[in-house]
Amino acid sequence: MSKQAQTKLQQLLSESDVGQIPFREAVESLADECGVQNQTAKQYVYKYANTEENVFGDKFVKTMKQETESDTATQNTTTENATKQTATEEVAGHIEDDISRQELEAEVGGGTGVYYDGKNFIKEEEWVEEHGPDEPIPGLEVLEDVGHPLVPDLDYQYLKRRLVGNYTDVEITVDAMADEDFSVLLEGETGVGKGVLIKFICMQTNRPLIPVNFDEGITFDQLVGHYGPAEDGGFEWKPGFLQYATERGYTFLADELNAAPGEITMALHGLTEDRSNRRLDLREKGEIIKPHEQFRFVGTMNPAHAGYDGAKNLNDAFQTRFYTIEIDYMDAKAEVQHILEKAGNHITEREARRLVDLAGNLRAMYPKEINTPISTRELIKVAKMKRRLSLVDSTKLIFGGIAEPTDKDAINKAIKTTLGKN
Asked: Within this chain, do residues 319 and 336 fall inside the same structural domain, yes or no?
């Protein structure tokens, strides 16, 4: 079957007019040709072909890998082991991007003796020389950059916001993540940048990140792992994303944590204990995992009082295990800059300012007068849509698509008042 997959990949590349094929197309073709599931087909692609992403994040299969004699001789005995499915396939609908087992098992960088406090990079030897060995170094240790595929790489400048006093959201969140006795929970409206904040911190410190969307459809066994059929006819343990993160020292981002079923949050109590008692229970396997020292569990949640589908208050026993940090929208100046960076030449600075003014007016009405939150993401969509439409029409189109039926009149009135008729 593996040789069949290799032959099919060669055929697809030879028949391509542009010398490359979309990654997803290659996976689907192999799955159909070989009669395997997509996760197995992905492993065939990674084994036999070189892949590459363009500037838009689209992944392509470019060329075939060169096999060595040793690879060929061991192909039949190793391919089946390399392509066994894991529980990650069952959680595929809950993650932002496809994550392969090859990516999950990539080498993780070790400590560098450099720490990031959200503002500066601090060398351990310089800190000890100035403050002595008993004073803890602030911030998270930067890991060696070994090119791990799960380390985020933002394609734009992250705009820090003042959170409290003179400290930014990055400084406060890094400080909280550095405390091994507590986990971190970011609370804020949809689209304020909670997840991007964590991605930025992981990028700065070379930490692999696994973001998983928590909702009513996810189960603990899918996250952690479970026994499932093996290709030899027996059963084998299929590890999930949370087990990989815990064992290998990744940062695990539980997005919309307060939308998860109660059994999920209850089962996470052990993983959010203080450092001496923290553990991951593989209940089906009867094992307990002591987390890697670099492992971090971070949650995000939308306010339960704001009417988000599925959002509810976390029970007190669980929430006390976190530093709960409230994240608000960017200030107007930063939001304008962010829109301009993301939308390119589609919108002028003056138009971006007017759009942010409109968002500010609508946010002041939420949730007492309207039930529709206006995120920065929606403003970016408006700015990009303006390549075809006027500012007013693109705003009506995007805002109208997310507005609650009872809010449409109020939102259209605000658009007319702030932006004009056209």
From this structure: no
Residues 131 and 271 in one domain: yes
DSSP string for residues in 365-377: HTTTT------HH
Structural domain boundaries enclosing 262: 111-326
Q: What is the pLDDT of residue 273?
A: 93
Beta-carbon contacts of residue 130 (< 8 Å; ≥ 6 apart)? none
Quote the CA–CA distance of 146 and 206 in Å, as a whole number.
Answer: 8
How many domains, the chain?
Answer: 3
Condensed to tens digits (0 to 9), the pLDDT of residues 104-127 reads: 999 899 999 999 999 999 999 999
Check which CATH number belongs to the domain holding 59 and give it: 1.10.10
| CB neighbour list of residue 325: distance below 8 Å, 6 or more residues apart | 163, 169, 172, 173, 176, 184, 185, 186, 187
Render pLDDT for 329-385 as a digit per residue (tens, 0 to 9).
Answer: 999 999 999 999 988 788 999 999 999 999 999 999 998 899 999 999 999 999 999
For Cα atoms 101, 105, 108, give the angle at the middle one, nearest 5 degrees: 145
